[in-house]
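Appendix B.2, paired examples.
Example (i):
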Amino acid sequence: MENHAWALILVAQEGKLGETYNIGGHNEKTNLEVVQTICDLLQELVPQDSSYRDLITFVTDRHDHRYAIDAGKIEQELGWTPQETFKTGLRKTVQWYLSNKPGWQKVQDGSYQGERLGVTT
């Protein structure tokens, strides 16, 4: 999360107006690798008797087998490189979701109605 935010600040301050910069970490992974890593992190952080990997369900109509971003331009033109690895960044993301369950559960259960969250009046 911080990686991306710092890259956005750098682009806003030093990027060329009208240019597009892809922000990525050279971590090309298959969808299955991403899901398995999330399952392994959950098993470590919130252990259960059966493996979270047992919850993976394969479907026949998936066409997006992987995602890849070429971040060469932001590195070459602005000197930005990621400070997080795929695993450390994903760990922080999973930990955030585990720590903020009440907020995202409202979206999942349908009780979130578009109001601004996290702001007190």
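Example (ii):
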Amino acid sequence: MQDERLRASLGNALVRLFRLVNRIHNRALADHGLSAEQAHILSVLWLVGPMTMGALQRHVALSSGTLTGAIDRMEAQSLVRRIPSPADRRAFLLEPRVPARSRARIETTLDATETRIWAGLSPTERRDLLRLLHKSIAHLDPDAAAR
């Protein structure tokens, strides 16, 4: 039965969950003029610091073309800028350029949205889900454990 195969598929459930979470984040971030993808990129840069496009690509798991397009749009919006890398004169670092007040509002929105999204799970269930997701990511991307 096709319906049961879909209901039993972890991949299908995860893709559906991603789309629902992404939709909720996009709606919440629209007031800030951001997409969920842009907020994710900014969050990584805020938490990890300026980094090369390659390092950012490994953190956000986007293709190089998709990430380049996103960064180009974000640069046009003055959300990020490319600065010369002090370690490699051929490379550039990506640096977030969002003012502190805007960053605080964006982070508050993200926190509120995360709370809403995961309200159906107990704290223990959230920890277990996060642990299992990290385990699956490490299996598929062994280098992810280092990040």
